[in-house]
Amino acid sequence: MATTELGVALRHWRDRVSPQAVGLSTGGRRRAAGLRREELSQLAGVSADYIVRLEQGRATKPSPQIVEALARALRLTQGERAHLFRLAGLAPPGPGTVPRHITPGVHRVLDRLTGTPVAVFDAAWNQLLANPLYTALMGECHGDDLNGVRRNFLDRDSRVRHTPESMGALRAALVADLRRTSGRYPHDANLQSLIAELRRRSDHFGDLWESGAVGEHEAGRKTIDHPQVGALTLDCDVLSAVGSDLRIMVYTAQPGTEDADRLALLSVIGTQLLTG
Question: Which Gene3D superfamilies match (predicted)?
Answer without folding.
Answer: 3.30.450.180, lambda repressor-like DNA-binding domains (1.10.260.40)
